[in-house]
Design brief:
Layout lengths: L1 E4 L4 H13 L4 E4 L7 H6 L7 E4 L2 E4 L1 H11 L10 H35 L6 H22 L13 H15 L10 H11 L2 H15 L2
Parallel strand pairs: 1-2
Antiparallel strand pairs: 1-3, 3-4
Helix pairs in contact: 1-3, 1-6, 1-8, 4-5, 4-6, 6-7
Amino acid sequence: MKVFGNTLSPFVRKTLAFAAEKGIEVELVAAGMGQGPAEFKQASPFGKMPGFQDGDFLISDSTAIITYLEAAKPEPNLIPLDPKNRARAIWYEEYADTIVGALVGKVFFNRVVAPRFLGRDGDLAAADEAQAVEFPKLVDYLETVIPASGFLVEDRITLADIAVASPFVNLSHAGCPIDRASHPKSAAYVEAILARPSYAATVAKERKLFAAA
């Protein structure tokens, strides 16, 4: 199985972590930003990361890929079977991908992607405003829903945790980390999920890249 993309994408990072938690071996193939092999372009007709290939099966979008991986290897199940808990897990993925993801688009794109990868200035005023106005609300919410177990659903690792942790890596890279003083539960929660083997090596490599910049 191949995942096409770059781990600096929160969606690629999430997909790789999900596969690792499932015990599924996947190969990361560099792609995105107009680059990548022909299979990536077939899998992702609009060039969005990640793309995915399993034999002659090609698909894109992290949620579609994760749905495939869950069905292909049902155990350990990372998308709960209980209807209410399954709905909660999907909600948390939506919170991460769409709501926090929109913030990543403003902060990470303008502070990192535009100047570093596109060779142009980002809209720093938009990034600053998003961090000041939107970011606290998103973390305020997270602070209220983290159970004592440290897992969002069923007191165990699920898609919910894997999805939620990923975009906060990008925000941290862009100088928008969770404040431990104002949001101690959220900071500890994200740190614990990212310390899992499914995330740790990838995140350490990314942090080293940004530290050297």
